[in-house]
Structure prediction request, 481 residues.
Amino acid sequence: MTTQTLTRQTADTALLQNQLDQQRRAYNADPVPDYPQRIKDLKALARMLREQQEPIIEAICADYGNRSREETLLFEIYPTLAGIKEAIGSLKKWMKPRRRHTDFKAYPLSKNTVIPQPLGVVGVIVPWNFPANLSFSPLTNIFAAGNRAMVKMSTNSGRLAELLKAVSSQYFPQDKLAFIADSGDIGPLFSSLKFDHLIFTGSSATGRAVMRSAAENLTPVTLELGGKSPAIIAPDYPIEKAAERLIYWKLMNAGQICLTVDYLFLPENKLESFIEHAQRLASKRFPDWQSPDYTSIIDAPSHQRLWKTLDDASDKGAKVFDLSAGQLDRDSNLRKFPPHLLVDVHSDMLIMQREIFGPLLPIITYSHPEEVISYINERPRPLAIYPYTQDKNLQDLYIEKTMSGGVSVNNCVLHVGQHDIPFGGVGESGMGHYHGYEGFLTFSKLRPVYRQGPVNLLKFLQPPYGKRSDALLRLMLKMTR
Prediction:
């Protein structure tokens, strides 16, 4: 490491620590913002997103090279604003202290209460694939719970990061919200700060590094990772309808979604029909693959990785079907990658070993649901599963016999857009939840409070012990039967 690099890291560390100290002082001065203040913060968050909507869309598009405007509106701006509205409508109920049961036999006339209180300063590490959604959505829960936040943007979101840094002071003081751009070295320094909670969205490999850094400070973490999320088409489900929904999600954002379907289980007698429908749907939706409707791969290394993954599968015997019909090639100036279906895949191929994060869809044919269940359970737990069937018993079989972060039945991804259910992974696909009430709880300390009543039975159970204490203990134990 050069002296120049060390000097820069020292300066970055000082700046980050200074920002954290500033927010910590503000928290200590006002540790429990009241309901009106939290509503004000949520409305300011929505106002920033609305008033900066066009610059945000343009910045994200520039960071990608090309990002569909409609996709940014539909999957970043709209769900975030809808989530803020939901939080505003529910906040009074969320903040209410909850009475809990008291054991009257031992603690007569005493009271138990659970009070949700702010944790303090929360660190947010944002990926590049949905950078507005995945910064503003956690902030919704963070501010609803009464916290302050430092948000580190991805190195691939440089233009958006500079925009948010420049405009956020119009809506929030720095001791409430600070956006931080990352030139490549900030990440490990950021995750090493002594936050009160840290939420990270990204790859499993980086998530492990974040968790190691947080562990040094005993900082609790929420990790939203990825994995290989399967879809399963059952024999009873209309193949054209399944193809329509699956191809929609696999091509949306050019497959750069942690929740998108990563591979597909398909009855063997449906294979030819599925491929035909997929080819037709792809050409219908994208008659010109160079149009702005089809999103670019985020950077050159990712573009090259996808070609390497496709070549590896082809070289090892996979049959590949180019859904762009040859319109896109390796030399695409905007890094537009041709979507492919892959058949006859096996575990020795790279495409079946790691999350794809691009518009490649491997297909595995099967005969019985038990084959699917066994295959999924022998591998790391995915972020989601997507069963396509009208048979309620079969839906329940897949839900009960496998484990995943979430489930969308007869579609993909859409459970993440529901504001009243939690979102999160399990095992290698993540830990912890946010969204809705569960997100409010994630960024709150559920503080138990016991209030002693007028009768204190413990005064009869003090040394020196004797007949009275023995009799009372026998009575108490008898009452537990």
